[in-house]
Amino acid sequence: MFGIPVLGVAHDVLLTLADALAPLLGTGSVAGAVVVFTACVRLVMVPLGYAQARAEVARARLAPQVERLRQRYARDPRRLARELGALHRRSGISMFAGVLPALAGLPFLFLTYRLFAGDRDLLGHTLVGAPLGLHPVAGLGGPHTPVLLALIALIAGVARVGYRRAAAVPNTPAPLRWMPFATVPTAAFAPLAVGLYLLTSTAWTTAERPLLRRLATARADRVVPGH
């Protein structure tokens, strides 16, 4: 997916960030660079997050109409699906708008995986003593088990918060509610640096979503006064 030039640029960017962070983080400077890199990626994707927030607000406001349709066509699932699709189209929202930020972040996730799956300049760096190229599943039972378990536990905790917030939004499709938990098995079978990327990205999303929803709600109130 990524050619040598892209990997080379990403490698240089990470090491440049690590050099800048070295006075503060020492041997953890590359791990810090992964966090900063992830934050920059998420900053670029804020417009997609805002689009997702607008869709969530719109779905919440459609909830009464959706419930009426479900009661009316409870015995006709095909008609219900058609009516729900038509309702969302008329409202100008997608039932799966929340997938966009996750899809947009996949190339950067794969890039991080490629870098720490075979780049010798990066594999020797550590996070609290644990090599950034170490896979948690392979490292369990070894000297780095506490670090690996702590990272997986943090990712699972953030995923749980993300699930609860998504479930609190009326009319959210089940795949979008459960999507945050996909980060847990991914982190378990990927290099430690990928887990650090996932933790940073999901924590950013968890913190960002309420802010963007408030902005989207304020905008919707201006467009449709009285709601």
Automatic annotation (TrEMBL):
Bilayer topology term: Multi-pass membrane protein
GO molecular-function terms, A-Z: membrane insertase activity
Keywords noted in UniProt: Membrane, Transmembrane, Transmembrane helix
Pfam family, any one: 60KD_IMP
Annotated ranges, domain Membrane insertase YidC/Oxa/ALB C-terminal: 33-209
Signal peptide annotation: none
UniProt KW Membrane keyword: yes
Cellular compartments annotated: Membrane
Any Gene Ontology biological process: protein insertion into membrane
Transmembrane segments: 20-44, 92-116, 147-166, 178-199
Chief localization: membrane
GO cellular component: plasma membrane
Source domain of life: Bacteria
Function: Required for the insertion and/or proper folding and/or complex formation of integral membrane proteins into the membrane. Involved in integration of membrane proteins that insert both dependently and independently of the Sec translocase complex, as well as at least some lipoproteins. Aids folding of multispanning membrane proteins.
Oligomeric and partner information: Interacts with the Sec translocase complex via SecD. Specifically interacts with transmembrane segments of nascent integral membrane proteins during membrane integration.
Family: Belongs to the OXA1/ALB3/YidC family. Type 1 subfamily.
The name this protein goes by in its record: Membrane protein insertase YidC
